Hints:
A: 4 domains; B: mainly alpha; about 70% helix
Amino acid sequence: xxxxxxxxxLKYNSTEEFILDKDFYTWVLYPKEEQNLxxxxxxxxxxxxxxxxxxxxxxxxxxxxIEPEVPEYKVNLILHKILNKEKTIILNRSRWIKYAAGLALxxxxxxxxxLAVNKENRFPIQAGTSTGxxxxxxxxxxxxxxxxxxxxSIKQSSSGHLTINNDTLEFKADKTSSAINQVIIPYGxxxxxxxxxxxHIWLNSGSQLSYPTExxxxxxxxxxxxxxxxxxxxxxxxxxxxxxxxxRIKVLGTSFNVSSYDEDNTCQTVLIKGRVSAxxxxxxxxxxxxxxxxxxxxxxxxxxxxxxxxxxxFFESWISGYLLFDNEPxxxxxxxxxxYYNKTIETEKGMEKISFSGKLDLKNxxxxxxxxxxFASAVKVQERNGSFIIKK
Amino acid sequence: MMxxxxxxxxxxxxKFKRGDNEALSLIYAINTPKLYRYGLKLTSxxxxxxxxxxxxxxxxxxxxxxxxxxxxxxxxxxxxxxxRLKRELRKEKRYSLDFEDKDYSFGITYSIEQSLILEEGxxxxxxxxxxxxxxxTPRQKEAIYLKYTQDLEYEQIAExxxxxxxxxxxxxxxxxxxxxxxxxxxxxxxxLLLHKFI
Lengths: 392, 198
């Protein structure tokens, strides 16, 4: 900022003047590095203005409203109506060129909206349902089955039969395509799911997967919260979609790992083999193609997607019962272990900088696994009332 | 702010007028949440807000060739959105958007309610500021919202609220002063208390 600005602000002798100054309130609401520098040095040079500035900033911040959630599906639905209306109006004018253009627009945007509307109506995964001790499946007809095996095998057949471990259930399949089964696996448990199309899914601890009892004619869509490894049966006519809250992954026969826990700051997709494309789970989102060994990461904070290369063995190891790490911050490892063993692991501040490389065998007791990390990373473990505290 | 990054408003608007549907989608996606939130402060009736948004964009699409230019799409949309909303609400008769009407209200919840800004000041200061905020008149609340949350200028606020430019300046200035004075009262109160106890 220029010297002129400094002179202007030196003349301000009231809180009001600062509050009404556009550059000032823009800085308070959307601070940028350059302005931070300006204001820090201004306050240091002119400590007499400090209280005015602090008071002005407090008042400006207090204006900020708690905004109501705008339902995305409604926003999409309205656009859908707007475009439909345009179509009929153009029809009335009976100008066929315009009609063709309108229809093309309707088809292009309309199909996206249709998907988005469906997604929002049916996104069947509610936060917080992964707590509790038992795994369960909520069937399309509304009934619930519970199971408390460590590792549950679920098989969905095309005839509507459902086999949980060795127990086969038979129920009248709802013929509507919106009939959805929801599998909920609590922390400390895991599940292996075979879908009717031959797709194989390993669902990790604290995760939920929803899938229709019968796939639609043109696509196969499943919804995921948490982490899962997918081995998708190829079918070019019926692409397979994994939809998470933030990211939508299109699959053309392949295996890959998706990690999208609500409590994590990122949603990651790693491709092991085959081909997928992924993009934000929203209207008009661009998609990014992945080749094997690539990962895309969606950052929830700044809502950006990045792509990088990774070593796939670190991402497929958990389905075989062990975890591999290469220079991973131990705090991230503890998060994974908390979910896998359903135990609380607390860490002291500043431990994000400590990292661990190596293999952890998940068949071992948590105590032993933690001891393994402590040895390599020189941290101390304490057990207290069934939870663990990690100290430097 | 976002518009500027992607395309200048004036150019985006022209594209839309020429029939560019990507431009329409972009304008819609950027602005609809803002309109929706503003609408919900003028009425709690979601379907009226949604109808007004639909009407606004339908008319825009239908008349795209005859629309004038604008260098501030958000302002243009908010202005015509509010006009429509007002008309709809009048039809409903249960609500009123006229400032003169004693039922006029601006339904806003401030983040201070959740103490999101506790980094600053004592609880007592926060309490006084919160009370003063909630005691602002509906028109003051609306003007403050348009300036500090929707980031509009005095002239634009004046047009949206159908008052003069001086009127919009005064509205905001008085609100700001009330809030500042609420904190000053606290200081004297504090000193008063101090004297009593020492």
